[in-house]
User: Which sequence fits this backbone?
């Protein structure tokens, strides 16, 4: 008995002191879900060039009307700059420090209110969710600031189906409806009912 | 879903044989108990690990405690026997799980 208690306590201590996850490693039994983005009304602003700059990636990426995505651990900011002020060729050959300077100390660059993540997150490997496409909408561009809101998320599933959900709260996405959770609860509920029946039978036999 | 089903079947069979080794009686009844116990604990433990608490050691500890209680009431054993059987069963299935 004492030995079992010692082993149990040791397991508990081990559990509490073991880190649950390492940054770039997907936990066993989990899969990463990529996030993609699209700016739906980008063509309404033809006088601007839209840029993505993130940590650790991308250094710089020009955004067009196509969907785009980032490295899963990236956090990315969106900027706009007037086409007349933007020289793509010049930026292609720029060094790291000059690029940082371009984004940090550039009065011509218009920062947005939004930061985007490269990954939607991790889900169980048996979850049918495959990707999340988030639709962004530019609501205003002023001389020094740009406002972008998340308007819709489109979830894609492994069976080829998609699901669209409007985004009401800018700080969190609506949950995808399809998951494999029903099995996780249907079987235990049936088992619990059967255990109850066995115990009743034992009592009254 | 296939992963859960496979893990569920393996666990039911392995724990049934462990119950049989310890108790040496009524194999059909022991199989039913293994089926019921693991049908209750394994799906909830898997869901809990994937969605609630991403720590296999704590999940295993909770499963061990719940199964001990179920073994006690279903097989009408005292707590020492139940702890020993539950600990052995969960240790073996956890080792198989880690290996696969």
Assistant:
């Amino acid at each position: 008995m004492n030995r079992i208690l010692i082993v149990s306590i040791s397991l508990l201590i081990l559990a509490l002191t073991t880190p649950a996850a390492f940054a770039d490693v997907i936990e066993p039994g989990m899969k990463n879900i990529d996030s993609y983005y699209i700016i739906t009304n980008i063509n309404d602003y033809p006088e601007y060039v839209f840029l993505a700059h993130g940590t650790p990636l991308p250094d710089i990426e020009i955004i067009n009307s196509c969907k785009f995505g980032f490295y899963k651990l990236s956090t990315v900011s969106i900027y706009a700059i007037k086409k007349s002020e933007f020289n793509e060729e010049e930026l292609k050959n720029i060094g790291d420090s000059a690029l940082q300077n371009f984004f940090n100390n550039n009065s011509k660059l218009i920062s947005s209110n939004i930061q985007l993540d490269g990954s939607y997150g991790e889900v169980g490997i048996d979850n049918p969710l495959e990707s999340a496409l988030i639709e962004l909408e530019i609501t205003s561009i002023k001389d020094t600031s740009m406002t972008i809101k998340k308007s819709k998320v489109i979830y894609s599933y492994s069976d080829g189906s998609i699901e669209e959900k409007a985004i009401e709260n800018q700080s969190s996405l609506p949950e995808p409806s399809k998951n494999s959770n029903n099995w996780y609860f249907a079987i235990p509920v049936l088992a619990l009912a059967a255990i109850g029946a066995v115990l009743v039978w034992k009592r009254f036999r | 879903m296939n992963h859960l089903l496979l893990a569920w079947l393996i666990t039911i069979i392995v724990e049934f044989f462990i119950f049989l080794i310890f108790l040496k009686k009524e194999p059909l009844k022991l199989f039913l108990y293994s089926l019921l116990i693991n049908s209750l604990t394994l799906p909830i433990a898997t869901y809990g690990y994937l969605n609630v608490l991403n720590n296999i050691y704590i999940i295993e500890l909770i499963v061990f405690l719940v199964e001990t209680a179920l073994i006690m009431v279903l097989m009408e054993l005292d707590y020492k026997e139940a702890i020993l059987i539950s600990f052995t069963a969960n240790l073996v299935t956890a080792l198989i799980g880690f290996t696969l």
In short: The longest helix of chain B spans residues 27-52. Residues 47 and 53 of chain B are 9 Å apart (CA to CA). Chain B touches chain A at residues 1-4, 8, 32, 35-37, 39-41, 43-44, 46-47, 49-51, 54-58, 60-61, 64, 70, 73-74, 76, 80, 83-84, 87 (CB under 8 Å). Chain B has one domain: 2-99.
